[in-house]
Each structure stands twice: as structure tokens, then as C-alpha cells.
Write a structure and sequence with these properties.
By secondary structure, the protein is mainly alpha-helical. Helices cover about 60% and strands about 5% of the residues. Helix 6 crosses helix 7. The protein starts with a strand and ends in a 6-residue tail after the last helix. The relative contact order is 0.16.
């Protein structure tokens, strides 16, 4: 089957940008929201008119069908849109979809007697309430599953174009990819690995945090855990990495890349921070050739600043912010031990993949691709040194882009290697696949081993203040005296 690449590009960029329209028209005063919407339309038009719609690429039909089916089953057990087991992080997703469906915008809440407004990244949550909210919460929630599936398909397609190989094999590899926790399980648990995995599957557990010994908050998620726990962040990372690597290494056209990436701010600001180093690498590769246009220099900054003024409205004083190594002498943990845990974490999350990947690909990759591999490993070593948030969302979210890039190099190495090197990499993949096994296995068991719409009933979905237990609600809401809500936001409809 011959695939029109430019049409896929249009669908992808519209997918990324669509949610900004209900934000501009539903959250921002019309005097600003309408011009901002028109500015976004103009930027999209400028991008799309320069695409070559005659360009098509051949993909085997059987591989495409298998690719779509595998991803459908994977997303079916992800919990997104009520399909599969609902992990605790999805409670917020269910709540926001319900409240964006049933309540007038901007969403407001009574917090300790004060009226505060939702100031959270909205792109993942607002699309289906906008399109299907008139049919009620259940319809919007069910549509969110297909919305998630579409994003996964588009992003996996773009990432595949960078690595080539077999579509089905690539899909399996990326779904399974993760850090290796085998030694951590053996050293920290009284039972064997299989008993631990069985318990985690039956009780919907997880394996992240194991390589940090639950001592310092270091966490890199497997690709499956990214989607199953935080689809809004995962999709931003999947799409961002796919587009960066395509524009920078496949199509060699970065003219509109900064503009498109700026639209991801409302998807996940922290993931966007993690994508920024990859963008800089690509811009330097091309010496900023093609960068100097109105989309990147005018439209993207204006749209980004409005999004940033909204997202930065929250009060962050209560959030944990510090260097990862702290004084833990009261707990009997020295700085030296913390450094040891950090190095242990890096070895089993990053270097266990990076070293064999380099040994296999060092004579096969172009020089600039090898530089990218080293650059990604460096970034993954630096990102964990800072902590932001109780559960260190900085480490978990900012790392996603570079982790995915490392995974793509891992697949390149697997299909390029031979002999014992290929066997060794396959063994690492199996050992690193335990996290995906736990997540998929537990959700599949819960769903009766088939795709099953298990969304909670509307009356079971709590409000945002009710689910904010254990972390401050102020990381989701902002007072009305912040810049955005004072000067840009529309008045709340009564």
C-alpha cells in the first residue's frame, strides 16, 4: 500500500493543534481568543501549503494491518478512555473529561473558601468533550480511547520511519522496551522473580522505582508504563520524538518543526522541556537553515507565551524542588550511598542498553547519528540530578523524549546486529520487558483478556478537589489575580 506522507503529516499536526482552538475560544477572552485562533489557522496554512502531496511511500499491506491491530490491542488495555484497568493516575483523566463535559469553562473550584481556576495542560482532555460532550460523559470518555489510539498510530508511524525494519517487529519492540529491574527484584524481594511478577500482575502493581531502591526519587518509565499511567505525557513524547527525528534525519526539512513542537506545550510542558535538547541538536545539525520564517519567529512565540502564561499560573511554592542528593542522615542514608544508587539506576536504565547499542552500531551509523546517541545518553544521565514535585515528575516526564530516542537506537541495533551481540540485546529486551508484562497482563486480566469498555460510572468519578489527596490541589488550579486570569481569561459563565 502506498501511503501519502504529507497527508499523514497534516493529520498529525491537526491532531496536535486541535485542542488549542477550544482553549482559545473557551478560556480566553474573545478579543484575544479569536485572533489567536486565526493566527493558529494561518500558521497551519503556511505549513501545509509547503508540503509535497505527491510524495508516497510503500508499506506492505499485511504489515500495516498487523501494525494497526497490535497497537489497537495495546491501547485497549491501557486504561485510556475507560478501556482496561484504571490505574490511580487515570482518576484525574476521568475527572477532567467529566468536568470539561458537564461544566462551563473556565473550570472553577472552591479551595478553602477561595475561587480558583483550572490551570492544567488541557490538550489531551479537552478534545473529546469539545466534539462529543453534547452526548454526555460516557460518549466523551469512549471517544477518548479512539483519540488516544489515533495518536499512538500516528506517532509510531513517524518513529518507524526513522528506524525502518519491520512494522510489526518494531511495534512489539517499542511496547516491550524498558529498564532492567531483574537484579533489583532479586536483591529486594524475599520471593523469586516469577512470584513477584505474578503478584504484581494479579494486584495491578508496577516495577518503576525499583532501580532507585525507593530511597531517592529516580524513575524512568518503560514505554508501556508511559502510556498506561500518563497518556497525556506519553503522546506528547511519542509525537515529538517522531517528528523531530523525521524532520531532522529522514525528510531533512526543519522549516516548521519549532512551530509544531511549540503546540505541544498544552499537552505536556515537562515533556516539551525534555524535547527541547533534541530540537536544539537538530537545529544545530542544519545550522538553523530554514528556521527563519514567520511561523517560528512570530506565530510560535505568541501562541507559546499565551499557553505558558496559563500553565505558569499555578502556585509552585509548595512543590518539592531540589538537587537530587540531599541530607538524608536522619534516615541513615549518606551522600555516598545516594551517589551509588544514582549510578546503579543509570546502569540498569540507560547504560545496559546504550553500551551494546553502540558496539553494534558504531560502524553502521552516520557520524551525526552517533553524536545523537551519545547526546541522548548524556541527557539521560543529567536529567535525574534535579527533583521537581513530590514524585519527581521532572525525572519521569522530562526523560521521556530521550528514552524513546534510545529505544529507537535499540531497535536499529537489534535488526542490524548478528551473532552473540544480537542475542545479548534480545536478552536485555526480555529482561526489560517485565514492566510491560506486568502492566498489560494485569489490565488484560481485569478486562477478561479482551478489549472491554470499563469506564467508571459518572457518579463514581470524583471532582478535582476530591481526588487531590496526598498532593496539593494548587498544582492544578490558580487564583484569579495571576496574569492570565486577570488579563486574558474570559469571565466565568454563571
Amino acid at each position: 500500500m502506498r501511503i501519502p506522507i504529507s497527508l499523514i503529516r497534516v493529520i498529525t499536526v491537526l491532531y496536535i493543534s486541535f485542542s488549542l482552538f477550544p482553549f482559545f475560544l473557551g478560556w480566553v477572552r474573545p478579543v484575544y481568543g479569536i485572533p489567536l485562533s486565526l493566527l493558529l489557522v494561518w500558521g497551519l496554512y503556511q505549513h501545509f501549503k509547503d508540503l509535497d502531496f505527491t510524495k508516497r511511500e510503500f508499506y506492505p499491506t499485511k504489515q500495516l494491518i498487523g501494525f494497526l491491530l497490535i497497537l489497537f490491542l495495546w491501547v485497549s488495555f491501557s486504561g485510556s478512555g475507560g478501556m482496561g484497568y484504571q490505574v490511580s493516575d487515570l482518576y484525574k483523566s476521568n475527572t477532567l473529561v467529566k468536568e470539561l463535559t458537564n461544566r462551563s469553562w473556565p473550570l472553577d473550584y472552591d479551595v478553602d473558601g477561595n475561587t480558583m481556576y483550572l490551570a492544567h495542560y488541557l490538550s489531551y482532555y479537552i478534545a473529546t468533550p469539545t466534539l462529543f460532550g453534547f452526548l454526555g460523559f460516557k460518549a466523551a470518555q469512549f471517544a477518548l480511547f479512539f483519540y488516544t489510539y489515533l495518536g499512538v498510530v500516528l506517532s509510531f508511524f513517524w518513529m518507524y520511519r526513522f528506524v525502518k525494519g519491520n512494522l510489526i517487529g518494531f511495534s512489539f519492540f517499542l511496547i516491550v522496551f524498558g529498564g532492567v529491574t531483574t537484579l533489583s527484584i532479586l536483591l529486594s524481594q524475599d520471593t523469586g522473580v516469577f512470584e513477584v511478577l505474578k503478584d504484581k500482575i494479579l494486584n495491578h502493581g508496577y516495577l518503576f522505582w525499583l532501580n532507585s531502591w525507593e530511597t531517592i526519587p529516580l524513575n524512568f518509565m518503560s514505554v508501556t508504563d508511559m502510556l498506561y499511567w500518563t497518556p497525556q505525557h506519553a503522546l506528547a513524547a511519542f509525537l515529538g520524538v517522531g517528528l523531530i527525528l523525521n524532520d531532522g534525519f529522514v525528510d531533512d526539512d526543519i522549516r516548521y518543526l519549532p512551530f509544531v513542537l511549540s503546540l505541544l506545550a498544552m499537552w505536556s510542558p515537562m515533556v516539551l522541556v525534555g524535547l527541547f535538547p533534541l530540537l536544539v541538536f537538530v537545529l544545530l545539525k542544519f545550522k538553523f537553515s530554514g528556521f527563519w520564517n514567520y511561523n517560528n519567529l512570530l506565530i510560535a512565540p505568541v501562541l507559546f507565551l499565551v499557553q505558558a502564561s496559563y500553565l505558569l499560573s499555578i502556585e509552585s511554592e509548595e512543590l518539592v524542588k531540589n538537587f537530587i542528593f540531599t541530607d538524608m542522615s536522619a534516615e541513615g542514608v549518606s551522600i555516598l550511598k545516594q551517589v551509588g544508587i544514582y549510578l546503579y539506576f543509570l546502569f540498569f536504565e540507560v547504560f545496559i542498553w546504550a553500551v551494546p547499542v553502540y558496539l553494534i552500531l558504531r560502524n553502521q551509523l552516520e557520524k551525526v547519528e552517533l553524536k545523537l546517541l551519545f547526546y541522548v545518553v548524556f541527557m539521560l544521565s543529567v536529567i535525574p540530578l534535579y527533583r521537581f514535585g513530590l514524585w519527581n515528575d521532572w525525572c519521569t516526564r522530562v526523560s521521556m523524549g530521550c528514552l524513546l530516542t534510545l529505544a529507537l537506537f535499540g531497535y536499529k541495533a537489534l535488526i542490524s546486529g548478528n551473532g552473540y551481540k544480537k542475542v545479548a540485546l534480545f536478552v536485555i529486551l526480555i529482561m526489560g520487558g517485565k514492566a510491560s508484562l506486568v502492566a498489560i497482563g494485569g489490565s488484560a486480566k481485569h478486562a477478561g483478556y479482551r478489549p472491554n469498555f470499563l469506564s467508571p460510572e459518572e457518579q463514581q468519578v470524583l471532582s478535582l478537589p476530591e481526588i487531590c489527596v496526598g498532593y496539593p490541589i494548587t498544582q492544578f488550579v490558580a487564583p484569579d489575580d495571576t496574569f492570565f486570569f486577570k488579563y486574558l481569561a474570559k469571565e466565568k459563565a454563571q
